[in-house]
Amino acid sequence: MLAAGLAAGAALGSRPARAAEPPPLPGPGAPFDREALVAHARERARGPYVAPRTDDLPAAARELGRDAYAAIRTAPGRAVWEGEDPGWTLEPLPRGSIFTHPVQLFLVEGGQVRPLPYDRSRFQAEGLALPDLAPEAGHSGLRLRARIAGGDPAEIGVFQGASFFRLCAPGQALGVTARSLTLRPADARGEEFPLFRALYAERPEAGGPLVLHALVESESAVAALSFRIAPEARATICDVEAAIFARQPLDHVGLGGCQASYLFGPLDRRSVDDARSAVHATDGLAIANGSGEQIWRPVHNPDALQISAFVDANPRGFGLMQRARAFRDYEDDVQHWESRPSLWLEPQGDWGQGSVVLLEIPSDSEANENVLAYWRPKETLPKDGALRVAYRQHWGWDRPAPPPLARVAASRGGRGSAGSRRLFLVDFAGEALAGAGGLDLALSAAPGTITRQQLLPDPGAETPGTRARVAFELDPGSERASELRLQLRRGDRPVSETWLYRWTP
């Protein structure tokens, strides 16, 4: 349930902090539950922001390159709960490279807090001298592994970097990144990146989910989040509860933020000299809006920043999806983009008015996560205000229980028949196409002109009538952008999801 209101009253059991010092974290031996962390976040938000120290990290650690840092491993037998049988292992991650700010790690066992101090012997890195930091120096985050169906522990997730985290289904590689809290992305005032300050991992029961709690902080806000992580055969389910407290008025908050890389694909290969067929960790934004419309918005790599807002009330779900699942879709023997997860988010309760926002940022590197989607509430959260929100994430091969509509299977674009015209090919697939009666095209461009359009059967369909292609040409004239909209219908009834795309030259 999403609710906003003024935070009032003193934090339970805490004294006011000194002006330049935040209240201490729930520490060794302290009783712990979610509401204790929420109370701490509320109290912390009443004081000024104090940035985490990074000057204790040696220059050699700060200057580690990406590959050198990635070569650091957990020493055999040193993962938390290794050799025990809760079905999970937890690996603290060292500070270094771009991960310089400290995150305090704690275990919660029997309802009490136990710190997890830094210990150099927990890590190994051939040819690299790891820093000998103080025990309270902290870590940069943690990695989670889970044992699925009695197998060896497999990587399920990483919480590391600002307030970012990544999960995946069994058999997948990490891909799309979620954000615990998003503040002012692509805003003229500059984006603010909240940081993990502490992570509390509850010891799981054998075969049960893992519950992780996080304290997140920035100049403008403090948040307490809880993550209940449960791997299943085809997806990892993560239930998120967040309590956000505003130090300053928050007029641009992003909830349920998710980001991923998109370099090129069949819809836009401009200036691409690459042997691979496509390079991306997501190929589109899916939305189930509050009125029930199912939307598919292919993403692309633009020449200039593109911001799209899909105005809505009480959305049913949205997420960055990876629909191209065959190796031949990418021809990448190293990255295997076909195995990257989709991330579908379902709000719990009513989220009110706002918009799903999509940012597409120009990029020349597949390492850049240049596509970002999030929910932006319409209302400003006032100074000293509080916001509670809950949602469920599905990290896996597809969204759960997709609607019985034909889906966009592929989108392609290229030079048209003459002048500045552009040719688009949009393929739909699904049993809904095989129903009785002919199909109608609901196709529009604003601005611009559709000069021709054609509905074609797909001769490669395994089941006759379950695939179709729409070919059309756009004449943009002198316009520099055009919003395209396409849906297959039978009379006044939709047969397919709605394909939306913003063309730019």
UniProtKB/TrEMBL annotation:
SUPFAM superfamilies given in the database record: E set domains, Galactose mutarotase-like
Entry keyword set: Periplasm
Record domain Glucan biosynthesis periplasmic MdoG C-terminal: where: 32-503
Region (Disordered): 12-32
Pathway info: Glycan metabolism; osmoregulated periplasmic glucan (OPG) biosynthesis
Gene Ontology terms for molecular function: carbohydrate binding; catalytic activity
Swiss-Prot/TrEMBL GO biological process terms: beta-glucan biosynthetic process
InterPro entries: Gal_mutarotase_sf_dom, GH-type_carb-bd, Glucan_biosyn_MdoG/MdoD, Glucan_biosyn_MdoG_C, Ig-like_fold, Ig_E-set
Pfam families named among the record's database cross-references: MdoG
Localisation: Periplasm
PANTHER family in the record: GLUCANS BIOSYNTHESIS PROTEIN, GLUCANS BIOSYNTHESIS PROTEIN G
The name this protein goes by in its record: Glucans biosynthesis protein G
